[in-house]
């Protein structure tokens, strides 16, 4: 599936998820201070009460942060090709998120995704799937687990607690700021638990959410609001000090 398109139906997707879950990936050994780190995020229309439907408008943004702090971003909009179905987020969001990333021109060395990885019915959520398809080490970040369970961590930055499905540890809670709500960290493609923790803490020195994902979320919402147009943005155009995020 890496060389072709995304699955187009539930049975095809589940088959691919099961295949990915069975694979063993070589660990990523990059150095955080010298990589281009990316984040990608998609948002939808406000105020809709029903579950997402095929044809909904989606607004996606990708952000690339360079070692010197400069950024490059790409924004895209489009209609979703599939209804929202739990466990099948890749059918709905995968193509648009991939388009946003490919629009950067050069892919990140590491990627944050607003999705799960092993915390999934078939142990291969979108954070793992997107990283695998594009061959980018990936980490999923969500506000709560999908299926996994586990006690919350302590209140200090850096404290963690495991999240399990049965006897399998599939992710972990991580407190990224003292006394702020923890995030769920989902080690994805080529990322183990220790590297995931190190990476998330590296990109959350100031804010609760990792900076690449936080900026991508802000840009996607600005795109939805019509405050920016689908395009490439360069050289800190999403720097908060300039009022763009």
Which strand-content bin applies to the residues? 15-25%
CATH architecture classification? 2-Layer Sandwich
Spatial shape: globular
**Number of separate strands:** 9
Low-confidence parts lasting 5 or more residues at pLDDT below 50?
233-245
Number of helices: 5
Q: What number is the mean pLDDT?
A: 92
What distance separates the N and C termini? Answer: 35 Å
Strand order of the largest sheet: 6-7-8-5-4-1-2-3-9
Sequence of secondary-structure elements: HEEEHEHEEEEHHE
Structural class: alpha+beta
Text of the CATH class: Alpha Beta
What name goes with the CATH superfamily? archaeoglobus fulgidus dsm 4304 superfamily
Count of structural domains: 1
CATH topology name, in short, is: archaeoglobus fulgidus dsm 4304 fold
Main sheet attributes: strand count, strand direction, barrel closure: 9 strands, mixed
* Gyration radius, in Å: 17 Å
The helix content, as a percent range, equals 10-25%
């Amino acid at each position: 599936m890496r060389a072709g398109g995304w699955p187009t139906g539930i049975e095809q997707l589940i088959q691919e998820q099961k295949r990915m879950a069975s694979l063993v990936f070589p660990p990523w050994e990059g150095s955080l201070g010298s990589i281009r780190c990316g984040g990608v995020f998609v948002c939808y229309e406000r105020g809709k009460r029903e579950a997402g439907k095929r044809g909904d408008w989606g607004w996606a943004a990708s952000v690339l942060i360079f070692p010197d702090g400069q950024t490059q971003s790409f924004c895209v909009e489009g209609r979703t090709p599939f209804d929202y179905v739990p466990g099948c987020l890749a059918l709905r969001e995968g193509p648009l998120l991939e388009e946003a990333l490919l629009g950067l021109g050069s892919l990140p060395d590491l990627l944050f995704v607003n999705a799960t990885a092993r915390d999934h019915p078939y142990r291969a959520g979108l954070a793992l799937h997107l990283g695998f398809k594009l061959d980018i080490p990936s980490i999923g970040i969500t506000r709560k687990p999908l299926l996994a369970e586990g006690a919350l961590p302590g209140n200090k930055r850096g404290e963690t607690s495991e999240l399990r499905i049965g006897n399998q540890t599939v992710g972990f809670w991580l407190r990224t700021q003292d006394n702020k709500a923890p995030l769920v960290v989902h080690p994805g493609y080529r990322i183990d638990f220790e590297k995931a923790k190190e990476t998330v803490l590296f990109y959350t020195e100031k804010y609760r959410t990792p900076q690449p994902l936080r900026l991508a979320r802000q840009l996607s919402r600005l795109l939805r609001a019509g405050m920016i147009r689908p395009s490439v943005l360069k050289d800190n155009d999403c720097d908060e000090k300039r009022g763009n995020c």
